């Protein structure tokens, strides 16, 4: 139903004033800022106009009626400008016309010519080109042989299957072709823009190969007509009957190569000559068809005389004899004929003759009995046979001979190849190809969306009628033995279809010769341009060289490649062998045209609005199924080869090809599949057996918005190996309106780093008023539905101790709390810049797991996943767990080994026993310094003067406390001396206070480390008594220490002292056992429930990890992630 528009004048409106120096096309400036596809000379496909130019200028609005929208005029044009642009739309003619104009302009000043509107209608633009491409060499050279071999019924089945396939494909193609403008490229363009660059490139190359091999087939047909029916004496290689097939193939190779060279030169010199001869070639086809029908009518009235000689029921080659007689009377004398000499040793009547010749009579029948003869009854059913089988008339009497060894050397008509139904399907199918000719010329049509469906479907209907009627009429008019005679040897070497034509067989011979020549030239013209279109799209990198050509755009390099591939088909030399090859490629092309239409219909994308309405997804699927069936019916071997070629090209484009966004159906299908899968995932949480870390990687960016720690992405890649979900996120401080450009730059940098580190996943950068809220938003909202992260990976805030960094450690602790609240696992990588890259290969070493508390088994799973990657493959897994005094460590080790056995994990097990010990002086000093620093951090909001006073007071307090400690002599003079030296050089900064107080107690730590016997693997009774006595002695010394000093220690928070004691003692054990490990995995303690001790929590973790290189802190998400069950 047409849409009606009414133009209503607006009162008090004035004509807008346009700047005289500015063209009125600037409303489309934003559409044209991006360059088109490299080298294809085509505009952007997301633009609504084909002929946008880069010289479009802006239009400035200076009116009053639409002043409300004046700020949007740059990006949103007025409707009047839009309609004006559409009214002036012209589509350049495609194909070789531009090259013809370029040839005409060479040597003269190139002036811009006014573009003429396309003027071709349905008849000239679509119907006749399709007719010319469909009717061709198979009709003239093989259809009669197919009818004679397969019979009328099976031939009709072949025609029905193949024509149904092309009709269904034409319906699908019409829907796609009328869903917008189809530029040059025809089927390649339709498939690539409907199914994406991978399928488009694969099928486009298959279509190119099919078109190229079609050129080989037409050239071989031309040479076969030339050497068999026009100039048989021109054969270079000659042989007797036994070697005749090989000699014919050699002749085809020599003459075919010469013909290909000549045709390639014609195409190279000027395609315009080929186009001017197209009408002549079409006239030859039409006249030949008319001559056949005229001959059928003539045969019903007066059948032509073409006698066929039979010996018994065997058909004889009628080349070397004139009379179908053994003997004849000449002047009342019985003499032998030339036929006698072919079967006997001499011309004498008493000569020894072939047994079958002696037993059977020679009879002569008419090769064309006529339409009313009833011969169709004999031709109704098939007559397949092996290679070398004699062509025999079934109802003719015959006496069999005992010796048949010499039959191959005698002038019988035999099968040159083994025949069967599927072979004939493959040979016949090229005769129904060519349905894309109309869509390839869409730019030349006056109304492509009307002409393409009507012209293509009418051409297929016409040719289907011609083929069906030809099958029936051939079976009704021609003798069966003549139909099965492929090269017309029984009718003196005439073309079988030619002897039926009227007025002369030469009409068909000359017509088919020029028809094949024209079809070959058109294949050599179209195939290079198809390859050039694929190369210029840039989706197959190694083909880009073929996108170049002469100055006028002629695809010279593509023509050379086409000629080379065409030569391969010519070297095969057999028309019957080449036909199934191109059948595969065309069938694959048609298969994907049908799939494209079905996919677009089922997805119901908003842009799918074809003007051709007589389509349905079921018809498209039926057509695709029929194409696939015909591929395997014709030749399962060639079908598999074609699929492998297409599959390799698909994977190559997917791996190396340029990324293109064409709004294709595969992307829509992926979206639908993703939506369906997400809905299914939403139904229930994943089972423990399906659990794998779905990572949210929190990145920090530097001032240039580059990734600070790219090794974090490397570690993510090694952990994931491309499996599961990976979301890489970061936060910028600010609002989205002010940080839009920075966000885009950050995402580009992150994606570049992900590509470099081979991290497969998604990137997400958000803007937030502060980093803490931004990371919180990512943790809460990253992912979609069931595809949400369950694990957060981040780097340890290495600068948290610096005085100017008061935020990082707070953000870190809040992130820990939020992941715990969200029941998500947390991985914190310390010293991440020292982690291995993807190119590194770690040698023999260990991944040490310190299993302190059970948090779902994530500690066990992570080393297993890491060892799947080649970086960590040679590393062994060691699991350490801690036993207390009252634990049975031997039983713990056995239980842990059994647990790992059931988990199917290979790891060494070690149980580390830690006895209860008193808190050392070093622990107290470490706690004291920590609380002093905490007090300082709480005062950071004071003014600078107040802050300096506060820092000074803390410094003085620290000095006085250490002096009092030194006076007691508890630590010895050798330990206090270095401390006093360091104290004298103390600065006023809080960081230096912490560092120097820490260094002042290194000796205490060394003293603690000097007792290696305090960590044991197993307990015995004697060892237990010895240890208990030593502990009592040390306890008494500790009691004396409590009375000797530390008045300031008494005010310490005892909870902090205990936590520090745990960190110090556990650090001693871990460093002792795992300092040389490639990676240490450790349970991460949870943050305090009260936020007042957050800064102390960071100190605890720092002490726990001190002295270790690569550490991964692991905090489980509160659920089991590993199971012993299958």
From TrEMBL:
Residue ranges with Polar residues bias: 967-979
Ranges for domain Amino acid permease/ SLC12A come to 126-296, 414-696
The membrane topology term of the UniProt record is:
Multi-pass membrane protein
What Pfam families has UniProt attached to this entry?
Answer: AA_permease (PF00324), SLC12 (PF03522)
Family to which the UniProt record says this protein belongs: Belongs to the SLC12A transporter family. K/Cl co-transporter subfamily.
- Region annotated Disordered, chain positions: 10-56, 940-990
**Primary site of residence:** membrane
Q: What is the official name of this protein in its record? A: Solute carrier family 12 member 7-like
Q: Which GO terms describe its biological process?
A: potassium ion transport
One Gene Ontology cellular component annotation held by this UniProt entry: plasma membrane
Which first-to-last residue range defines the signal peptide?
Answer: none
Q: Which domain of life is it from?
A: Eukaryota
Which positions fall inside the SLC12A transporter C-terminal domain?
A: 710-828, 841-967, 1057-1126
Catalyses: K(+)(in) + chloride(in) = K(+)(out) + chloride(out)
Q: Which residues cross the membrane?
A: 120-143, 155-178, 199-232, 252-271, 278-297, 417-437, 457-483, 495-521, 557-575, 581-602, 614-631
Organism field: Umbra pygmaea (Eastern mudminnow)
